[in-house]
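Comment thread on ticket #2218

A.B. wrote:
> Attaching the input chain for the structure job we discussed in standup.
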Amino acid sequence: MSHPKLETEGVAGPRVAWAVHRFTSGGIGPVCHYAAKELALRHGWRTTVVALHESPGECETDSCQPRMVALDLPEHDTTPFLDWLESNPQDIVITNDVETLAPCMPHFPKGTLHVIQVHDSGARYIAATARNSFFADGIICVAEHFAGKVRETLKHRGFLGPVAAVHNGADFPEIPPRPIHQDALRLLFMGRMDPLVKGTFDLAEILHASISMGVDCKLAIAGGFCDRLNSRFKRLQLSDRVEWLGRIPHEKCYEIAAASDIFMMTSRKEPFGMVTIEAMAMGCVPIAWDVDSGTLEIIVPGESGLLARVGSPKNFAAAINKLDKDRDLLLSMSRAASLRARSRFTAAHMANDLEHYLGGLGPREGRLFTPGKPAVANLPGLSNHSGSQGIKDFLRGLVRRQLEVSPKAAAWALKHVL
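C.D. wrote:
> Ran it. Output below, let me know if you need it in another format.
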């Protein structure tokens, strides 16, 4: 199916709005802002980032690129977004992991192209994309490693629109000089305190194995605090090796990465990995579990990062030990990591890819429209507090606790089940 070049009146660029939960929700809000800003400044597009559940107010001035709009909607009723679209007509709307908008999607204006951007490789996110694909003209995945699965799933649904992989990108600050040093190796973890997805419990075993190999190192943790992980550090007598930095502003992350040697990517599932490219851009060398993830599309193993056999803290520690014993190699990989991030994963690169994809997008034959607005708002489901539900929750908790301490099993479950 052909997709004719998007036509706009006059010389102004197309009007494009990104719908997100909040401006700061995970990595989605910031990456949409990067994309909207670059398309506005470099390509002349009229861009807006709409945060459905954020307050306060709007940035309405022409000098604000992109325009930032906070609708402050409740989670259970996003129908006022349709009013915003009516008052602010768009050529393209890009929805980003906003299942709360699903009841509104059949009612998006017929003259507005709708693109679903998929930020997560999990089975339930792909299933949600498939459910809503009837109301979309195109699909974007943030990495290629799960774009194939999305294409195959949508094909079975009869969706013949374009599905593309567009890597995320960011704006990076200048990197300060990074000389060789022989001091204790500076390890870094940045991310939310999630032992199942982010593998935070793995940090204790990896740190313990590294020290057992004779590595002199310290670990900084940015993103919060976890009592259970802290207890593991205490049990392994590692507390004096760990610095908890807590939640930090996004811009501070670059400064911390620039002062660190190795970024510990312990995620069991990482659809893309914004934090990885941010650390690499500042010369912090990533070591990651070798699982099917966006990380494998970001780093070049042995050149700009290292991979460890999933489920083996000793193998992960061996990679740390290798860089500790060869500081010249650490420095060369640091430079390669920075070059890789700054040459391939910039906001400008992302905007160019989006401009190419969106600029060639056209209305999809067969897209479903329903005039008006949803008859019933997307009300939350009623919680089931029955005894059987309590048993299910108990069993689910048991399974989760097992997966939290098993990287290999968790990686499989996060990809195929969760």
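A.B. wrote:
> Thanks. Noting for the ticket: The first strand starts at residue 15 and ends at 20.
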